[in-house]
Automatic annotation (TrEMBL):
Enzyme class: hydrolase
Cofactor, how bound (note): Binds 1 zinc ion.
Leader sequence segment: none
Chief site of localization: mitochondrion
InterPro entries named among the record's database cross-references: M3A_MIP, MetalloPept_cat_dom_sf, Neurolysin/TOP_dom2, Pept_M3A_M3B, Pept_M3A_M3B_dom
Any single Pfam family the record assigns to this protein: Peptidase_M3
Entry EC number(s): 3.4.24.59
UniProt keyword annotations, A-Z: Hydrolase, Metal-binding, Metalloprotease, Mitochondrion, Protease, Transit peptide, Zinc
Reactions it catalyzes: Release of an N-terminal octapeptide as second stage of processing of some proteins imported into the mitochondrion
UniProt key word Transit peptide: yes
Protein name: mitochondrial intermediate peptidase
Family: Belongs to the peptidase M3 family.
Species name: Piptocephalis cylindrospora
Length: 663
């Protein structure tokens, strides 16, 4: 098995099973290509309408007892198509698929907004809640699912008049459209730096233009020795027009109007009302407390940079250290240390995946098993299909790994849910996507997820940061595999946004342990493990100036809160919010004219919830100390994590999960 796993990630090993032909993800409806999405849309709406009718007709105790099941099936019917389209829009390389997914997603999203304001559906839930003999007989998970649906109805304006509900739906559609426009604007803001004299650069036939991608900008800021040129690069990289910033400001405005329509003072208040943090005030207090705790370390790290800067003949005397100086002096600081051999050759992708599988087995008794994909099942032949199986060989779910960079691929790493786990009820008939198994006398729909990264030549070796990223995303995937709840709506990562990062941060934490990292390593030529002192030194170097990155994350989180806080008449837009956030928790002074908020794509997916990374990192550190520093990497510690957190998905109060874990 180990040899199979290692070989599976060699470039030449990727080939489809030509004897099997299927649609994308093995979905029969997509065997005909992207037009199959239209058929999936039609089928989903037809099934949804049937479920809506059954829900609205529920009156007897027996019918009400099965109501949560019907609601969950309705949600699953719609979400399967929406989640698939969301993945295609973000990852698929074929423009035909992307265009069709955009259209289908838009239509189904509008239909979902109609369902979210459907009075008959809401009334049925109210009947259930108002019938104690039935409500009290429901399991904890069933009640949690019902309450989630009730909260969603209230947030969607169910209490509004018909005219106001129609306006609410229109606003929701505008939020969705503006979100897409904002992400598109991000991709288009690639203004080349202005002409600036860089000594040593020879110009031939005119000017040289460099696309202002984050990677290019980072390289330039690290390498450019001239402060004025670094300033020009930084300002150009984070420049944006009023029209572009207007897209973000309009998005924030529509969110605010949505919240006000359902009697919240702000979008932040509405979003956080059912999260762990509960309120915007609590979040801001948390961020500021974290900033104060980090302050002395930040001062020390800034002092280190200033010491390096004092040795720089190009630096203007008395000038303040600026944001564009950080990367350059950080590089000089690291260069002043003894040179280190690279660790990259010790972490070829196959070896890292094998180590991940072994860790999964030690902690949870599950492992990864290579599986050949059918022809047409994947979107590029670089994708690897992995089965997750129990110790007895029981199939738990599928993980598709799309880890290598390619032209046109979105930057960054991500986890996509294609299909959630849930129980499959006998009256449903066969599931048209397959993926069902019998367990414990019942039939279950198994989860299917995709992990995407942008590694380069990972089969030859990965740096520690890439290994950490992979383990982080694998933490999300494991949550989906182990959190197989009865109901789709609380399965795996379908939990509170400020709880969902806890498992992934815990799993990336293993990479900061020198002993485990060494066990994970094996040189791709010699087969030797990485020397422990080299591993320890690399990990130590990664912590250099880490407080400044932590502080920048606090600025992002505070900006997110400031944008979505209560608004006064005539309040300025996102430019003002940036100034406020940097004044409250920034390590560097605000730079007029810089509009880095347009590069902060998490404002779409994590609007009012970006603090989640910070909160879950604090919680993860406490859990790590309590669980893994006490019991080590063992089945006992893994079982504690699984039983207290992972298996519940979103079906239990997250604070209760954390409390159980820390006891």
């Amino acid at each position: 098995d180990d040899r199979d796993l290692l070989h599976f990630f060699e470039p030449a090993s990727a080939s489809a099973d030509s004897s099997r032909v299927s649609g994308l993800f093995g979905i029969p409806a997509l065997a005909s290509g992207p037009q199959g999405l239209e058929g999936m849309l039609s089928t989903a709406v037809h099934r949804a309408q049937g479920l809506v009718e059954a829900i609205c007709a529920s009156r007897t105790d027996e019918e009400l007892y099965g109501l949560v099941r019907l609601f969950d099936r309705l949600s699953d019917t719609v979400c399967r198509v929406l989640d698939l389209c969301e993945f295609i829009r973000g990852v698929h390389p074929d423009e035909r698929y992307i265009s069709m997914a955009e259209d289908v997603y838009g239509q189904l999203y509008s239909y979902m907004n109609v369902l979210n304001t459907h009075v008959g559906l809401f009334d049925a839930l109210c009947r259930l809640k108002a019938t104690p003999t039935v409500w009290n007989a429901l399991a904890e998970e069933e009640q949690a699912v019902a309450l989630i649906f009730l909260r969603d109805f209230h947030k969607s304006g169910i209490q509004l008049s018909q005219r106001k509900r129609a306006s609410f739906i229109q606003l929701s559609d505008e939020v969705q459209s503006l979100s897409r426009h904002f992400l598109t604007a991000q991709e288009q803001i690639n203004t080349p730096p202005p002409s600036h004299p860089l000594p040593g650069v020879e110009r031939r036939g005119g000017q040289v233009y460099i696309q202002a991608t984050p990677r290019n900008v980072q390289y330039l800021l690290q390498l450019c020795p001239f402060p004025s040129a670094r300033k020009a690069i930084y300002q150009a990289a984070y420049a944006a027009s009023d029209e572009e910033v207007g897209i973000l400001d309009a998005l924030v405005d529509r969110r605010h109007r949505l919240a006000q329509a359902v009697d919240f003072s702000s979008y932040g208040e509405m979003f956080l009302s059912d999260k762990m943090a509960k309120s915007p005030e609590q979040v801001e207090v948390f961020i500021q407390a974290l900033s104060q705790r980090n302050a002395s370390v930040v001062r020390g790290d800034l002092s280190l940079l200033n010491q390096v800067r004092q040795q720089d003949p190009q630096a203007a005397k008395g000038a303040e250290l600026a944001a564009w100086d950080r990367s350059y002096y950080h590089r000089l600081l690291r260069a002043s240390s003894p040179s280190l051999s690279s660790l990259t050759p010790y972490f070829p992708l196959g070896r890292v995946i094998l180590g991940l599988s072994r860790l999964m087995h030690v902690l949870y008794g599950v492992r990864l098993r290579p599986s050949q994909h059918a022809h047409g099942e994947v979107w590029t032949e670089e994708v690897r299909r992995m089965e997750v199986v129990n110790e007895d060989g029981t199939f738990l779910g599928l993980i598709y790994l799309d880890l290598e960079d390619r032209p046109g691929k979105a930057r960054g790493a991500a986890h996509y849910t294609i299909r959630c786990a849930r129980r499959h009820w006998p009256q449903e008939g066969p599931d048209d996507q397959g993926g069902t198994v019998y367990r414990g006398g019942s039939q279950w729909i198994t989860p299917m997820v995709v992990l995407t990264c942008g590694f380069s030549q990972a089969h030859r070796g990965m740096d520690i940061g890439e290994v950490e990223t992979l383990f982080h995303e694998a933490g999300h995937a494991l949550h989906a595999m182990l959190g197989q709840t009865t109901y789709h709506n609380v399965a795996g990562t379908r939990c509170a946004v400020d709880f969902v990062e806890l498992p992934s941060i815990l799993h990336e934490r293993f990479i900061s342990e020198p002993t485990f990292l060494r066990l994970l390593s094996q040189h791709h030529h010699t087969g030797a493990p990485a020397p422990l002192p080299l591993v320890q030194t690399h990990l130590s170097h990664r912590q250099t100036l880490s407080s400044l990155e932590d502080q920048q994350q606090m600025v992002y989180a505070m900006l997110d809160q400031r944008l979505h806080a209560s608004r006064q008449q005539g309040q300025e837009g996102s430019d003002a919010a940036v100034r406020e956030a940097e004044a409250m928790v920034g390590a560097f002074s605000h730079i007029p004219g810089v509009r880095w908020q347009m590069d902060f794509g998490h404002l779409v997916g994590y609007g009012a919830g970006y603090y989640s990374y910070l909160l879950d990192r604090v919680l993860a550190n406490r859990v790590w100390q309590r669980l893994f520093c006490t019991s080590g990497i063992s089945r006992e510690s893994g079982e504690n994590l699984a039983s207290c957190v992972l298996r519940h998905g979103g079906g239990r109060d997250p604070w209760m999960c954390v409390e159980d874990l820390l006891q």
